[in-house]
Amino acid sequence: MGHATGDGLLVEVAGRLRSCLEPGETAARFGGDEFAVLIEDAGGETGATEAAGRIARGLSPPFDLDGREVFVTPSVGVALAPPGGGTPDGLLREADAAMYEAKARGRDRHAVFRPGMRAASAGRLELEGDLRRALGDPDREFRLFYQPQVRVGDGVVAGFEALVRWEHPGRGLLPPGEFVPLAEETGLIVPLGLWVLREACRQAGEWRRLQIGAGRPPLTMSVNLSARQLREPGLAGAVAEALGASGVGPDDLVLEITETALVGDSPSAVPTLQHLREWGVRIAIDDFGAGYSSLSYLKRLPVDQLKLDRSIVAGLDLDQTDLAVATSALALARALGLEAVAEGVETRGEAEKLAEVGCELGQGFYWQKPAPPKEAGLLALGPCPIHPTS
């Protein structure tokens, strides 16, 4: 959603929050999309967690923004004042640490502060500082690894997905799960995502100049976009700049967006995505089947490709129900004229069954783990090597 709509949602959330309060409870906006609630006599941990649940339930019904339903999923951190009081700053820090613990447990959760969270919160702040420093010169510490997307039938490489890694000076090579969620929470995903986009296009252009994959259809390059990036007004311009600097054609770039990002931000995202598609850039729904899959939004959104989530692919060669789900997802893609890519393929049985039911493209450890640029480029010279796990 745009900035004005986001501000309007915060106003609505604040009003709803006030209506959830009981006598002796006071709410205030703490910053950004965070609110603090002071409970004068919570009745111990049990009473405080009951209050957290009550507030979360009060915020669960959809908000009406210009005729559109918007849902929020609060993460609530609870901190209890020790006997004799404690300081306001200390309580806020503890509640903040508990809130991030709640976020780590998943959507719409609450957590009560425990002493061990203090160290985790300090570690998070330290990592955030390191991330900000590293983004000052992203070429020094960030790396892109590339996982091939292959033709299921013969293992020939058709494209790559760019996946970011962080060569942290003190912690070694960090996978995205250890820093990308933090980047999303802090807004640092915008400069990080911009670097990923530019570097992935640059690498694709270099492979083309080296004639890697020559004699076959051009290799596609897939790049992930976050919900935060979708809300950036300069996204289309950034894509155009990256393509222009690298010499890569727009029809060779695939932008992957998760279902949750598309559904949550679809009204504001559609014009930008439509604009990119008109240039020739392809749009993929990532992790399809892990969240809000529905025909209604597939018909509404400018999409070219469905990437079937590992949850759909896993065990489809062993269970008839799993096979039926995967077959239905592939039939849906065909009916809508969309290309399908099976993600997370890990066994020979899964790959063979996917070929049997007509899935043309696959991606996963069965063929190849994400690899550095030199190794990934060699993969495109011939059939992808097989690394069976079964």
From TrEMBL:
Gene Ontology MF terms: cyclic-guanylate-specific phosphodiesterase activity
GGDEF domain ranges (all copies): 1-115
Record domain EAL: where: 124-384
SMART domains documented for this protein: EAL, GGDEF
Signal peptide stretch: none
Coiled coil start-end: none
UniProt cross-references to InterPro entries, sorted A to Z: Cyclic-di-GMP_PDE-like, EAL_dom, EAL_sf, GGDEF_dom, Nucleotide_cyclase, Rev_trsase/Diguanyl_cyclase
Entries under NCBIfam families matching the protein: GGDEF
PANTHER family in UniProt: CYCLIC DI-GMP PHOSPHODIESTERASE PDEF (PTHR33121), SIGNALING PROTEIN YKOW (PTHR33121:SF70)
Protein name: Diguanylate cyclase/phosphodiesterase (GGDEF & EAL domains) with PAS/PAC sensor(S)
UniProt organism field: uncultured Rubrobacteraceae bacterium
Lineage, highest ranks first: Bacteria, Bacillati, Actinomycetota, Rubrobacteria, Rubrobacterales
